[in-house]
Specification:
Number of helices: 5
Helix content: under 10%
Structural class: mainly beta
Strand content: 25-35%
Number of strands: 43
Distance between the termini: 130 Å
Shape: elongated
Oligomer: single chain
């Protein structure tokens, strides 16, 4: 009975007396989801989110809630109006005119930084970039021409249906979720090894091409180039080799990738398409072609046969705000060739001009960033007047290396927010902001020059030969560069002729081939030419050669009985002997001919008939090389 008492007491004790306190974990819980936030963009694919709060009594700052605190989804996925400004470019433009290290810049987006979701911008005309913000606005594309977007500073996948984290993908025909049956593949390899130096056409990508890929098989010092059918280059034209970048051509983004200067890496070009004009692909040949692979896809349903309009990409907008214009090339084509516009008159012509950046200029922001308050003058109508410096593009550098200069136009313009910009006296702008430089230094890198090595020994011990040397391109501060870096300087020759000394002329006997035997059996005669000459094939009299070593001119032949086959070709049976050939003269060496050929026996079938004398051509001597 006493043993049961403790058991009863234990049973009556509360359960919590035996468990580890877990009050905090039980009380950590999520609150309700909030309403959807405002979309981060008005068009082009923005991001909206819901968020919730974790309620916790933990004192260490953490929580035990499981799951995300925010949920994102796509919004406003419709395309932006034609001519709209690039979204990342808009974000960089917010810093236009703000003072940066004592200067004021026009900022453009920079895509070469490691983190694609930082707001990195490059000042126009400069060679450095700066991170203005740790994160771009949600919905900003990670790269130009691609769908993926940045969300809270991280690049997120976007499907071809423009929805965040969607698994929908385009096929090679650019059909969202398609199976590739609406187009067909065009592929090939361009591997002709020996081509003329310079630009050589590989093939033409026609209008409507999608999923374009071109890749060099083996790294080389050859380069790819792209131009339109009018002969205007978009990439690597006129012996100017560009670095890796994205190009807006043929109404699509074409990505060009190659190694850094001095490195050997396979070149590649890829683009989504579809193209709106034919693109001519060329190879700049500098050494043996190792081969290029290419592929693209064309729709089965092509546009109607005959002449049709082709057009290129739009130029940059002429103004940043307040309404500007863009233009593009529009031309008539057929079979990838340009024809006069009237040939396409039966089809509607695409626009070649359009307005852009029609949004009003942010006057308040511009005033606070660039100008002092007195830079704003009020007219009698109460409209703010803005004075600003406008700069033209930099001219080409006066030299390609070693330090040169370039210039640009700089002028003062006035804008009141409604009318177009108008040029005014420079003094209006100089009162509020320093005039930008009209000249600057450029091409400060060291010039690349040809470096030559010593000539090798002559290939011949006497007489005429050739010798070689190494020729490389470099700056003197780095390893050898690719040959194009030293152009247009003419490349020094790598070979030249040489003359060590006159070779001693040796005069000796030269012999021709034996002629046909006069008889096919029972002992005939045959003869050959024997001439006294030197190695340069000049003839001399017999007295200039050693009479003791003089070879025989005539010898006996076919001494066998007539019931046996002939030993050498004869005038009666010349099978095995080419009667049309020319006799060759070779140097006679007594030791080699000591056996005097000893009538080498060859089993030759007897000819079925005797040739006519006029079928036999006389031997015409010629020189044999030795």
């Amino acid at each position: 009975m006493k043993a049961l008492l403790p058991l009863v007491i234990l049973t009556l004790l509360p359960k919590s007396a035996f468990s580890v306190p877990n009050v905090n974990r039980q009380q950590d819980h999520w609150g309700h989801w909030s309403e959807w936030s405002e979309c981060s963009r008005t068009c082009g694919g923005g991001v909206t989110f819901q968020e919730r709060r974790c309620y916790s009594k933990r004192t260490d700052g953490g929580n035990s809630c499981i799951g995300p605190s925010r949920y994102f989804r796509s919004c406003n996925i419709q395309d932006c109006p034609e001519g709209s400004r690039d979204f990342r470019e808009e974000q960089c433009a917010e810093f236009d005119g703000s003072e940066f290290q004592g200067k004021r810049y026009k900022w453009l987006p920079y895509y070469g930084a490691p983190n694609k979701c930082e707001l990195n911008c490059i000042p126009k005309g400069e060679n450095f970039y700066y991170r203005h913000k740790e994160k771009v606005i949600d919905g900003t594309p990670c790269e130009p021409g691609k769908r993926d977007i940045c969300v809270e500073g991280v690049c997120k996948t976007v499907g071809c249906d423009s929805m965040l984290e969607s698994s929908q993908k385009e096929d090679k025909c650019l059909e969202c979720g398609g199976d590739g049956r609406t187009c067909h593949e065009i592929q090939g390899t361009f591997n002709i090894p020996d081509l003329p130096r310079g630009y050589n056409q590989i093939f033409i990508i026609p209008v409507g091409a999608t999923s374009i890929r071109i890749k060099e098989l083996v790294p080389s010092r050859n380069f790819l180039a792209i131009k339109n059918v009018r002969g205007e280059y978009y990439l690597n034209g006129h012996w100017t080799i560009e670095f890796s970048r994205a190009l807006n051509i043929a109404s699509t983004i074409i990505h060009y990738d190659r190694g850094a200067e001095g490195d050997l890496a396979p070149e590649s070009i890829h683009g989504r398409g579809p193209t709106t004009e034919p693109l001519v692909i060329e190879m700049i040949n500098q050494e043996s072609n190792q081969g290029f692979q290419y592929e693209y896809y064309l729709p089965y349903r092509r546009q109607s046969q005959g002449y049709f309009w082709s057009y290129g990409s739009w130029t940059e907008c002429s103004t940043e705000c307040g309404g500007g214009y863009q233009s593009r090339l529009v031309f008539c084509t057929i079979d990838n060739e340009v024809y006069p516009d009237p040939m396409c008159s039966d089809k509607p012509r695409p626009m070649n001009n359009r307005t852009c950046n029609s949004q009003r200029c942010p006057q308040i922001k511009r005033m606070s960033y660039i100008y002092q308050p007195r830079g704003w003058q009020h007219t009698g109508y109460g409209i703010s007047q803005v004075y600003s410096w406008k700069t033209g593009p930099w001219s080409s550098c006066s030299t390609t290396c070693g330090g040169g200069s370039q210039s640009r136009s700089v002028y003062c313009v006035s804008y009141n927010g409604r009318e177009a910009h108008s040029a005014v006296d420079d003094a209006e702008c100089a009162a509020f902001a320093e005039k930008p430089h009209t000249q600057q230094f450029c091409s400060l890198k060291h010039c690349a020059t040809w470096t030559v090595g010593p000539w090798s020994q002559c290939s011949e011990r006497c007489g005429k030969g050739f010798q070689t040397r190494t020729v490389s391109c470099g700056t003197g501060l780095a390893s050898s560069l690719q040959d194009f870096a030293c152009l247009p300087q003419p490349k020094p020759t790598t070979t030249q002729s040489c003359l060590v000394q006159e070779c001693t002329q040796e005069v000796g006997w030269h012999i021709g081939d034996w002629g046909l035997c006069s008889k096919s059996c029972s002992s005939g005669l045959r003869e050959r030419q024997v001439i006294c000459a030197d190695n340069d094939r000049n003839f001399y009299g017999p007295e200039n050669c050693n009479e003791r070593d003089r070879p025989a001119i005539v010898e006996k032949c076919n001494t066998q009985s007539c019931y046996l086959p002939q030993l050498v070709p004869s005038m009666q049976d010349h099978r095995g002997y080419d009667i049309t050939r020319h006799s060759t003269l070779t140097r006679y060496i007594p030791d080699a001919y000591s056996a005097d050929n000893r009538h080498e026996r060859k089993e030759v079938e007897r000819a079925p008939s005797v040739p006519r004398p006029d079928d036999i051509n006389p031997l015409v001597p010629s020189w044999d090389s030795y």
